[in-house]
Amino acid sequence: MYPEFPAFKPLNIEDREFISSLLKDYKPVTSELSFTNFYIWRENYKFQWSVYSGNLLISARSESGELYGFPPVGFGPKTEAVLMFFRWMQELGIENPRIERADLRLVDELRDSPLFEISPQRHHFDYVYLREALATLPGNKYHSKKNHINAFKKNYEFRFEQLGLRHIKSCLDMAETWCTLRRCEDDLSLMEEWNAVREALMNYENLNLVGGVITIDGKVEAFSLGEFLNESTVVVHIEKANAEIRGLYALINQQCAEHVWGNALFINREQDLGDDGLRQAKLSYHPEKLIEKYSIKMA
Question: Rounded to two decimals, what is the model's pTM?
Answer without folding.
Answer: 0.96
